[in-house]
C-alpha cells in the first residue's frame, strides 16, 4: 500500500476516533462522582446538536453553540433533580434501567419537538468539501476542531478537578461519599452538578461533530454505545485514557475496512470490548486498585 | 397454594379463548399467542434477573439465535440429496417433511423438531461461551458486556446473506407439532396454536417453580438474598449463575423458534437493542423475582403493543414504564414476597 | 393480601384486553375502508412521514367532495415503524378485523414483501409505495405498486454513464432492504451496458464516517461512484468523497430526491446525478409537459397544508389513491375482483411518479420515461441536460 493510502486510512481512523473520544469523555464525569454510567449521555450529544441547529437559525454560530451547551446542561441537571435524586439506595440494575428509560424518553421527545429529518450545523471553518492535504492524504478541518475540543475539555476538566473547590468536592464524593458529607460537602448538589457538567460536555461534543456526522433525533443511541465502549476500554473515569482509546479504536476500525466488509467491523469492535472486559476490566489506563474499590 | 395458582392460570387461558369465541373477536388470539411467546422470554429473563441478579441487556439475541437457526434449517431443501444415507435415515424416523414451496415446486425439508433441538443447543453453547468470561463482571460492566453481545448478534444477523441480511428470512414453513396440531399463522390453526403457546408457557413456569423449590432452587434463593453469605455457605455462586444464564437463554431460543414458525419469518429487528430493553422493562414492571408479575406484565404490554395501541409512542411508553417503575415501584406492580 | 394484588392485575389485564378491541363502524352509506400501513416513525420515516401526510390530506379532500362515487372513505392509518414484523402484524389485524377493502403502502420493500402473500390470499388489494423487483415479479393478482422500479432507475443511470463514457465504477450501498435491492439491480444490469464494477462495498446505515470505505474505493481507480441508500448516509458519502479528494462523478439513487440531502451535503452536493420523478423540478418543466398540471397541484396542496416541501415519496401515495379511485369509479359496486381488474386496465393515467399504463402482466405501470436525470446546481435540483 502506498504511503498516501496508509495515511488516508489513518486520517479516516482519526476522524472516527476523535468523534468517539469526545463523546466518551462525557461519561467519565458522572461515573467519577456517582459510579453510575449514564446511558442517556448519547441523548445529551444529540440535544446539543439539535438545539444548536435550531438556535443557529437566528444567532451567530458560536453563540448558538454556547446556548446549546447551556440549555443542555440545564436539562441534565433537571433530569437528575427530578428523576435520579428520588431513588433511594438504588441497585445497579435500577440505575441502569432508569437511565435507559430516560434516554428513550428524551429521544421520543426530540422526535416530537423537532422531526425525523436529518440536520447539521455548518462547518466551523471551511465547508463540506474543504480539506487539508498532508503528504497526499486529505483531512477535513472539522476533525481538527474535534481533536482540539477533546484536548481542551480534558485539560479543562483536569484543572477543574484539581484546582477548584467544586472539583475537589466532587472528587471527595467519588472517593467516599459519607466521608465527604461529614466534611460538610452537599453530596446531592455534587451529583446534580456532575450531571450538568456531563451534559454540557456531551452537548459540546454534539455541536462539534454535527457538521461531520449530521444530527437526527435517534443519532444518540449508536453514538452512546460507541462512546461507552471507548470509555470502558480506556478505563472508566480516566478522560485522557478515553481519548487515547477512542483514537486507537477509530484507527483499528479504519484499517479493518481495508480488508473486511463494513458490517463485520462492529463485530470486531465489540469483540475487542468483550476481550477488554474479560482480561482487564479496569481498562487500558485505569488502575485495578481503584477499580476494585468502586461500589459498582 | 401453588397448585391453585396454576389452576387459576389454566382456567384464565380457557376463559379468554371462549370469551373471544363468543364475542366474535377470535382474531385477538393471534396477538395473544404472539404475546405468549414474548412472555416466555420474559419469564426466563425474570429468572435470571431476579434469582441470579444478573442484568442482561442482550437477551433478544438468544430469541434471535433460536429464530434464525430454525428459519435456516427448516428451509433447507433436501430433495436434491434425497437418496443420501442421512436423509433416508431421517425420513425413516419420520423427521423429514414433504411439501411445496410458494412457487409450487416440490421440496423435502427437515422436521422443525430438529431445528428446535438445534436452536436450543446452539443457544446453550453460546450462553455458556459468553457467560463464562462475562458473568464474572459486576454491575455496569456486565450490562455493557451483555449489551455488546446483543449488538454482535444483531450485526451478524444484519450483515450475513445467509440470514437474509436486512430483509431477514421469510417463507418459514409451519411447524407440524403433533398429528392434528400445527403451529402456523393460519386461521385454521389459530385456536390450537393459542392453546399450545400458553400450554408451553404454563409448562415452563411449572418447571421453574419446581426448580426453585428444589435443592438447586434453595441455593438460588440464597444467592438472591445475599450473595456473599451464600458463598460463605459453600455455594458455588458462579456456577449457578452460569447455569441460570444458559437456562434463560434456552427458554428464549425456544420462544424464538415457535414465534418464527408462527409468523413465518424473522428479521434483524428481533435482535435490536430496543427489543432487549423491552424485555428488561417488562421484568422490571412485573417485579424482578416475581414470575407471575412478569408474566402478566409481559402479556398485557406486548399485547397492547402488538395491537398498535400505543401508535407512534410505542417506544416512549416503554421508556416511561421503565422510569415510573424504578421510581415508584422498584419491586414491581404485583407485590409479593416470594414466588 | 396476595389475592387482592392478583385480582387487581388480572382486572387490569382483562380491561386492557377488551379496550384494545376496535369499535364497530356505524352502518350507513357503505363506506369503503382503506388501510394505510406506513413507516411514520423509525429508520424509514422520511418515506413514511410525507406518505402519511399525503394520504390524510387526500382522504379529507375526497370525503369533502362526497367520497368516491358516493362512498365515503374511512382511512385506517397505521405506523409500521419501518419494521416488517410489525407491518405483518398490522396487516393481519386490519384485514381480518376491519376487513379493509384495500391497503396502501407499506413504505419499504422489506415490509411489502412480507405482506404480499397475505394480502393476495385475502383478496385485499395492495398498492405498495416501494420499489423492489419482487413486489410485482412474480405478479400476484392483488398486489400493485406505484413506485418506479429500481431496475428503471439503474437503467437510467447506466445510460447516462454510457453517454459520459464511464465504464469502471464503484458501488456503495447501505445494508438495508432498499440498498440491497439496488445493489442487485446494479450488478445484474452492468454487463448489458458494458460497465465494469471495480469495487462493491456495503456500509451500515448508522455509519458516522465513510472515509475509510471511500479510501478503499479511491484505491480501485474508478471513473464514477454509485451510491444506493435512503438514509442520511447519502449526504455523508458525498461529503466524505470530496473531503478525501475523490473527485469523480457521484450518482445517487432516486432516494436522493429530497432537497434536504442536498442542503446537508452543501457544497459536496454540486454535480451529483440522480434519476427522479419530476415532482422536485415541477416548477421548471415546460408548460406542455403532460405531468406539469398534476405535479404543481399536488405541490401546492401539500405545501399549503403541511408547510414543508412535497416529496416524491408522498407522490407514490397520491398515485396509489388516484389509481384506486379510478378503479372504484370503473367498478362502482365495490366488488373486489372487478376493482382489481379495473386497475389492470388503467392506461395513460397521469400521476406524480409518471404516466401509468397497467396491464395483467405489469402491475407497476411505469417505464423509464417516468424518470428524468437530475443534478444539483447552486444547491437546487435542476434537470440534467447532458453537459
Protein described:
The complex is a heterotrimer of chains A (296), B (339) and C (387). With 296 residues, chain A is an all-alpha fold. Chain A has a single domain (3-119, 139-279), classed as ABC transporter involved in vitamin B12 uptake, BtuC (Orthogonal Bundle). In chain A, 73% of the residues lie in helices and 2% in strands. Chain A is globular, with a radius of gyration of 19 Å. Chain A starts with a helix and ends with a helix. Chain B is globular and about 60 Å long. In chain B, the strands form 2 sheets. In chain B, strands 1-2 form a two-stranded antiparallel ribbon. In chain B, strands 3-4 form a two-stranded antiparallel sheet. Chain B has 2 domains: 2-74 and 112-328, ABC transporter involved in vitamin B12 uptake, BtuC (Orthogonal Bundle); 77-110, no CATH class. The model of chain B is unreliable at 334-339 (pLDDT under 50). Chain B has helices at residues 2-22, 28-51, 60-75, 85-93, 112-134, 139-159, 190-213, 215-225, 227-232, 237-263, 273-286, 291-306, 314-328, and strands at 96-100, 106-110, 175-178, 181-183. Chain B is built from 13 helices and 4 strands. Chain C has 387 residues and is α/β, with parallel strands linked by helices. Chain C has 2 domains: 29-148 and 292-356, 3-Layer(aba) Sandwich (Rossmann fold), CATH 3.40.50; 151-276 and 372-383, Rossmann fold, CATH 3.40.50. Chain C is built from 13 helices and 14 strands. Chain C has a 5-stranded parallel beta sheet with strand order 2-1-3-4-5, sandwiched between helices. In chain C, strands 7-6-8-9 form a 4-stranded parallel beta sheet, sandwiched between helices. In chain C, strand 13 and strand 14 (380-383) form a beta hairpin. In chain C, helix 2 (45-64) packs parallel to helix 12, helix 3 runs parallel beside helix 4 (109-121) and helix 6 (150-163) packs across helix 7. The longest helix of chain C is centred in the N-terminal third of the chain and has 20 residues, at 45-64. Chains in contact: A-B, A-C, B-C.
